[in-house]
């Protein structure tokens, strides 16, 4: 099942991220897909703020993985620059570290993503409007979507 949510400004995107964060659980994996400027990092920042993280959240394009401590650990990944080295840096290990993993450009590492995850595709409609296509994989993610979407 897919859920489609339309946001009309950045505040709507922030609210969506906060709603999903309210149902977070250990080893949660959120996969963000979308063009440059679609709102992936806006979503990740809002999720982190809702977790109580006060650090400046930026897209970890050159670091690939940044770790933050809130009420749980947050592992924020941007895999845009990865090629064949994805297994060499141990990305899969983060999926079971009892934190939350948010992956920007997750479609580039589809082959190593966990079976159970929340996939969020962001489509740019115009300068401010976005359509979020949310697909839950696994019962925990389906339950989460039923509760907050």
Concise overview:
The protein is of the alpha/beta class and 149 residues long. The protein is 22% helix and 30% strand. Strands 1-7-6-2-5-4-3 form a seven-stranded mixed β-sheet.
Order of helical and strand elements:
EHEHEEEEEH
- Please give the largest β-sheet: 7 strands, mixed
Q: What is the CA–CA distance across the termini?
A: 12 Å
Roughly how many Å is the radius of gyration? 14 Å
Number of helices: 3
Strand content is 25-35%
**Low-pLDDT stretches:** none
Write down the overall mean pLDDT. Answer: 93
Strands across the major sheet, in which order?
1-7-6-2-5-4-3
Word description of this protein:
It is a single chain. The protein is an alpha/beta fold. It is 22% helix and 30% strand. It contains three helices and seven strands; from the N terminus they run βαβαβββββα. A hairpin with a 3-residue loop joins β3 (65-69) and β4. α1 (10-21) packs across α2 (40-50). The radius of gyration is 14 Å and the shape is globular.
Give the topology.
Blueprint: E1 3-7, H1 10-21, E2 28-34, H2 40-50, E3 65-69, E4 73-78, E5 100-104, E6 117-124, E7 130-137, H3 139-148
Parallel strand pairs: 2-5, 2-6, 4-5
Antiparallel strand pairs: 1-7, 3-4, 6-7
Could you list some keywords that capture this structure?
149 residues; alpha/beta; seven-stranded mixed β-sheet; 3 helices; globular
């Amino acid at each position: 099942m897919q859920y489609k949510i339309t946001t009309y400004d950045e505040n709507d995107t922030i609210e969506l991220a906060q709603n999903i964060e309210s149902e977070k659980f250990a080893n949660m994996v959120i996969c963000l897909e979308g063009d440059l400027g679609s709102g992936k990092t806006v979503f990740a920042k809002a999720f982190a703020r809702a977790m109580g993280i006060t650090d400046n959240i930026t897209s970890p394009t050159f670091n690939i993985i940044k770790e933050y401590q809130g009420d749980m650990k947050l592992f924020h990944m941007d895999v845009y620059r990865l090629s064949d080295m994805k297994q060499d840096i141990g990305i899969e290990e983060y999926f079971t570290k009892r934190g939350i993993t948010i992956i920007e450009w997750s479609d580039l590492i589809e082959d190593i993503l966990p079976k159970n995850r929340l996939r969020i595709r962001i489509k740019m409609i115009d300068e401010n409007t976005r359509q979020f296509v949310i697909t839950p994989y696994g019962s925990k993610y389906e339950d989460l979507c039923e509760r907050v979407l």
